[in-house]
């Protein structure tokens, strides 16, 4: 039976792992075992933080809407409550965008709600 040399496969795998951790600090960027662990943890954090990002943006929109509504003599909670009672279905992302970029339209929405 002929001899099979498998060094190229393992080197290729190691090269791919180390390519993924380029820029990491200390042994995580040079040692294969630590690099594999770092990749695993980075993937877990990336997954969790993709979920968390949605919460972060919702908080940002709430603050932006609150600031814009305060100028017009309203509180955030009363404004959202009035929107729901009037059955105006604009989400917070759109409201924040209108408050920032299109003041007149936002003022019209607040006037309808009052």
CATH C-level class: Mainly Alpha
Shape: rod-shaped
Relevant CATH superfamily: Ribosomal protein L20, C-terminal domain
The proportion of residues forming helix, as a percent range, comes to: over 70%
Low-pLDDT runs = none
Straight-line distance between termini:
88 Å
What is the structural class? mainly alpha
* Overall pLDDT confidence: 95
Query: Mind telling me which CATH architecture this is?
Result: Orthogonal Bundle
Strand proportion: under 5%
SS field, number of helical segments: 5
Order of helices and strands: HHHHH
Number of E-type strands: 0
The CATH topology assignment is c-terminal domain of poly(a) binding protein
> Major beta sheet, specifics?
none
What does this structure look like?
By secondary structure, the protein is mostly helical. The protein has one domain (7-113): Orthogonal Bundle (c-terminal domain of poly(a) binding protein), CATH 1.10.1900.20. Helices cover 75% and strands 0% of the residues. The chain has five helices and no strands. Helix 1 runs parallel beside helix 2 (32-71), helix 2 crosses helix 4 and helix 4 (92-101) crosses helix 5. It is rod-shaped and about 85 Å long. The mean pLDDT is 95.
Produce a short descriptive summary:
The chain contains 5 helices and no strands. With 114 residues, it is mostly helical.
